[in-house]
């Protein structure tokens, strides 16, 4: 950028400024207009303050090292089954240990870190709300109020269900959404239940008698486990708590009123506040939802989401976002993808996401998640798709067009062929053509059913400027032909909701051959996700062996209405009391960001070394320039002194010559006068007394004498020239013309003349008379400033000649040892650090503006392949790229880049256009 400042300037535009001078009468003060800068400088100033020179991100929230450094995060190219089995084995081991402990003390398991019962009774709401949220307001008034939509009680499974069963009959049609907006998760559970061994693979350990369950979820590229007890939230309060239901039942004259109340309001799946099974004794849905909520910190964090994210978290697959209008060949889409549902893929679908409404389209609810559970081709060739609404309610949100329940298309033969029965299980069939016409958005999740699939991943931190560009970030070495799936993802902010900050990001990447990085030579680009921001991916059925590079681009968006991470921490710790929620969410934040600790530490060290080297180089160059200036000044001074000496010698010789001529002339005149006197001493001549008087009077040449005039002019001119040359150690400067000088005998007593306007009296030194006379005259301000600068330069030069310190005349590089590794000053210090300026706390225009742009994204790449020797390397920064890697070209269809037209002149040696 033109006119951009050096690194010594403050990054923060809100730095302290001097206070305006105070005046006795503020009303008389006139407001000064700011100096208007040229347009380009004004624009540069705006962008200079727009963003930080260096981007930073809080990698740790808690004040102590709560998260140990993670080893082996850059996982090797391991089999997918190995990572799953490792997490499953650890979960089983811990569940087994807890079961042994509970049996030893004859107690059911109570989760001490996520106890729903005590959290509700103490009115904390930590298990219900994320930090900064009050979605479920827990207070005495809401717990006792009949209209408040909050949980009212907590009980264990054996207290709620008469004959509790866990995964006895896993069926996708058994999932029913509760009092939370997590239809995306319920649809994912429905899809998972439709896959063979889907739910049992998610729940790896449990003991229903002890009341402990261990579930596995896929989070940020690795399997994590969540262990919970069997306590669940209920809609209605207990009998002993005041409620409208109890008051109504007490009006009935019965002895078993309490039993009736419990059986009516607190028994079976219908009594649960959150998700439930349609089977009144099945428990796998609420318990799995609870474990998923615990993994994210609370239930409110699950409100709102995308089916694809839920499918990834439950299955460990890779989701791609599809739009029905973008599908090129519908027949190929049916044959290769949709017909393989529950085998190689899982599908979720929705419609009307951007239509600003929650209406219906022939019974289909807008902005609501549905799941594909089956796809069949009838004998007649008709292609049908089976969908389910996770609401699980009768005739609500169901398709009402052709092939809906009770439509004319159904015959006995078709019902027998599909095994379909009309009912209230929220399941309906729709033709494939109507599916792609009514549903606009699909989430397709690939399942890795083949045991040969492997995964290798890396995590890095990426600076996100306001105008993002592609940069080389990763290198892939494929040793054999293999299918390849690339996934670029960012941290899942749902796990530390409330601490996401103001920035959201979108990811883009391109895959190139190593030797073909041009924009037009890419192999494939990432499939952009418009709704799912968490990850982007691309699938290559068969990629030949070779070396490849990945160019990455991250774009950022800022929501200034959201608080920054530091503002949230400040708000939550302001009271300086115990804050369990901040500790819990802060730990999740630190745990997630620890994935990039190693990389960002390496980048910080590289940048520190680069900045130190750059600052040292700048100091050496500046020291060299100063030395060269001093060297030139010394040479000029020597030459000037030599010239002045020569002039002085010439002047002395000329003075000597003039004196000699004057003496000879005086002698000659005296002789002539004597002869004339002798000649006149005859009759009528002077007497002896007159001759003696004449001899006693000094002989002085007349002012009007031609020889005297010439002598006076030459001496005055020489004195003036010599004074102007010798008055400065630098280059000669112009001196005002002095008055014409006259020569007086050295022994003649002259009368002092008072100075004019307070000036010093003129000197009587014969050598400098003319020069000082010129110096006495008033000079313009410019001449005075030039004289001062020249004198200061001469003084500094003289000091430099005698100094042996940092300002030595020789640019010795050993002086760099005086600077610490954290000193990035680009100019060598001549004086000690100045004292800090007094802080001024008055508001300025910049202080009222938002903080400068400062965005950093934690990005991870996962490479799925069947090559056991695959290598994935991270490209570290080099040169001046600030950790961004080698810069790549813009996309070939980039509108801004293409607006520049064709530029082939430099490459082809021809014209600059076509």
Description:
This protein has 914 residues and is of the alpha+beta class. Among the domains are: 83-312, no CATH class; 317-446, Cathepsin B, Chain A (Alpha-Beta Complex), CATH 3.90.70; 455-602 and 856-908, Jelly Rolls (Sandwich). The protein is 33% helix and 17% strand. It contains 23 helices and 25 strands. Strands 9-16-10-13-14-15 form a six-stranded antiparallel sheet. A five-stranded antiparallel sheet has the order 1-17-24-19-22. Strands 21-20-23-18-25 form a five-stranded antiparallel sheet, with no helix packed on it. The protein is elongated, with a radius of gyration of 46 Å. The chain starts with 38 loop residues before the first helix and ends in a 6-residue tail after the last helix.
